[in-house]
Amino acid sequence: MVYRFSWIAGAAGILLALGRLERLLLSSAEGLPWEVVLLAAALLGGALTWAGLAYRLSLPALAALNLAALLLTVVRLAAPATTWFILPSPSSFPALGTELAYALELARTGVAPVLPVAGLVAMLAVLFWSLGALLCWGLQREHPYAAVLAPLVAYLQFATMDRRHSSAWTVAFVLLLGISLLAVAADRRRHGSGLLTTGPGRAAVGRTRPAVAVGTMALVVVIALTGTAALARAVPRSGLLDWRVPSALAGGYYGSISFNPFVGIRQQLVSPTDTALFVAEIRGELSYDRVYFRLLSLESFDGTQWYTARPRVARLEETAWFEAPAVSFRGPTAAVEQTVTILALQQDWLPAAYSPVGFAADNRAAASGLRIKVDDGSLHFAALTYRGMTYRVESRLPVPDLAVLTLGADGLPSRVFADASAAEDGYTAVAAISPPVAVELPDRARYLALPPGIDGGVLGLARRQVRGLGTDFERGLALEAFFRDSGAFRYSTQVDPGHAATDLADWLLDPLSPNYRTGYCEQFATAMAVMARQVGVPSRVVLGFTPGRLLDDGRVVVRDRNAHAWVELWMPTQGWVRFDPTPRGDGVNPAASDELPFDLAAYLDLEVVVPTWPPGTNPTVPLPEDDPVLPLPPVSPTEPAGGWQLPSLPAWLPLTLAGLVAAFAFLPSVKWSRRRRRLRALSMGDISAAWREMVDRLADLGDDPPLSATPLEVARTTDPALLPLARAYAESAYGPPRGRSFDLGQVAAAATSLRDTEGRLGGRYSPLRRVAAWYRLKSLTPRRWTPRRRPR
Predict the structure, then answer these.
(1) C-alpha span between 469 and 406 (Å, rounded)
(2) Which CATH number belongs to the domain containing residue 498 in this structure?
(3) For 580, how many CA atoms within 13 A lie in the half-sphere containing its CB?
(4) Residue 188 forms part of a structural domain
(5) 3-state DSSP helix/strand/coil percent for the chain, to nearest 5?
(6) HEC string of 217-233?
(7) Which residues contact 215 (CB under 8 A, 6 or more apart)?
(8) Domain check: are 285 and 144 in the same one?
(9) Into how many domains does the chain fold?
């Protein structure tokens, strides 16, 4: 059957899937565009399958042929530097495993569009190769629905990954689905009409059952829609539940850790480790212990957690700055350059000191995958960071000017600082010659927005902490001191799970709630940022890392335990200023008030609480002392041994030789398998199988029989031993039909004739010519001269 319309529908489905994939992948950074690679894979899969079917390969042989070719293609795509021409070397497969593992992690956690990394392109090449092969096999072997619907299934998977608005794509998919079903039905209807209808002497023509297909599709659609509606609320906004998410790799230096950019009042079961996430060389105007590395800031709060809502990102060449000038820091800054080398961190946000002003990477893919979150200068990578990834960042770190921050709108010291100036011998607050210039925060309402339903007790608590204070800086200091200096809060990573403890009001106000006022940095950052908004101070939560530890070689190592969340408040005269409400005991996260030359708590009306901890709650768990900093594993050059030794063979040579042996054995093995099938068919009475074997043998030896010759003429010009086979073949092809019976004597005579003729040919041709015959392709091309059997 010729499925003309189905071929068109299947090809259109592959193109539709490829088009939807355009929304998931960025353009290729170098080499061939990934679109060309995937189209070539689909064409190769279809062409190889077509050829295998033309040569009448069995399904296992056809699958093995495709798998072998696909393996060579995947290795060449994912690990080209390890191959010898197109053949893999021993180092190819470990490299291939690494690339595929990275691609799987990127597919699982990456946010589209992502970089088309080598492993990801290789995985997609497997898919499109399979689609092309399935399209060809299905339409050649009377399985049209499998052929035309498989690309649409792939499209649905891509559509699931693509969360952007896509109504036009949905319409196109539905239309193509309907057209594909109609195409198959039309092809089958055309095949079953006119002269080709079922009748005496003709094979039965398969009939379509559209009602079954339509009913099945309707059932699938109903299940999908109802299932999606039922499970929609079970999927959190963040996609991942844990703030710190270990990957599937092992722990230690060779582990991999990612951080979910959503911070909230939830029990995350955080257990910081000494896993080294990255190392950095820091040069500039600040010491290493004052350099925080940030991932990104979170400006939206939904009542439970902080997140970044549809961040506006731009390519580096599309924007003239990293952070929009309207929100950049206006006070003093310090220049710091960082050269970061990733170790165990797998993340799509690059750690960098705030605020970046320059970026460079030797890896072209890393540079092309950079995106800038322009409202805070965060660096988004359109893939996942990987071990060994290195990049350089130039930053201008804010150094808040306390002389300006301590002033009110009238240019005079605000209340707290005026009181401290009057009471402290070593501190004097100086008035400004003119009032400082205040800058309105663009989109201020965005950084003050809170969802409805927050308990009014939280607002009352916030207002009590800032009572009588006149500037946003004083209010920020007061809220920070409330968490750090009031004695009412405990820092602990040993928290009890429980739904009640995820509520902000319960955590702050109810002594009977689990983990009352006890928690990790995310709880403190969440609470302070919410309370700051309630008293009119724009806020955002920042996810990043506290300063790392200095190694002997001058680099700074940042470990898993350095992961941290803090708060930034908008100061109209300066910009975003860091505040850290987490009462850690190791001193790695100094408070903003630590820069002051006096004890701030003495001049604030803090709500000092002596908590009565409910029975059974955890006692304060101090942060354990830092373990000794382990050195990074050294990379020592391999030194050759002294004295004379046998020359070592290249590591790729054994596998290359094995590949060459397999390549040279391929054609003979195909012909040997074909001969076995034909001899089996001969034993079942098919004399034409023996005749085809002999004709193919003559063609490979260079004595291709003429197209006009009859079987008897071919036998007379070849060898008399072939005459019995020629007579038997002519009788079976042109004689009266025998039904299902066959003449055993005739079959035995044909088998003897074939064996005798092959023996005589072996003595007639030279060994070199006989060996060359195994590698000639003549017999593997379609034959036209073989007489057709007339219908019976």
Answers:
(1) 12
(2) 3.10.620
(3) 23
(4) yes
(5) 45, 15, 40
(6) HHHHHHHHHHHHHHHHH
(7) none
(8) no
(9) 4
Length reported for the chain: 792
Residue indicated by tokens 């004295």: 643
Please check whether residues 489 and 384 belong to one and the same domain: no
For tokens 């956690």, name the residue: 109
Query: In the structure encoding, which two tokens stand for residue 788, read together?
Result: 């057709």
Q: So what's the pLDDT on residue 584? A: 80
Which residue type sits at 153?
Answer: V
Can the peptide bond before residue 113 be classed as cis, meaning omega within 30 degrees of 0? yes
| Structural domain range at position 322 | 244-400
Cβ-contact 148, 183 below 8 angstroms:
yes
Q: Is the pLDDT of residue 179 over 80?
A: yes
d(CA 59, CA 199): 31
Query: Do 51 and 192 sit in the same domain of this protein?
Result: yes
Report the mean per-residue pLDDT for the chain.
Answer: 79
704 and 726 share a domain? yes
Task: Report the pLDDT value the prediction gives residue 290, as an integer from 0 to 100.
Answer: 93
Q: Which amino acid appears at position 755 of this protein?
A: R
Please indicate, yes or no, if residue 625 is contained in any of the structural domains: no
Same domain for 393 and 453?
no
The last residue of one of the domains, among 383, 400, 417, is 400
Residue 589 and residue 733 in one domain: no
CA distances from 79 to 89, 128, 293, 740 (A): 10, 19, 33, 55
* pLDDT single digits (tens) 427-476: 888 888 888 888 899 989 999 999 998 999 999 999 999 998 989 999 99
pTM of the predicted structure, to 2 decimals: 0.61
> Which segment, 264-278, 561-575, 665-679, 748-762, is predicted with the most confidence on average?
561-575
pLDDT on residue 247 = 35
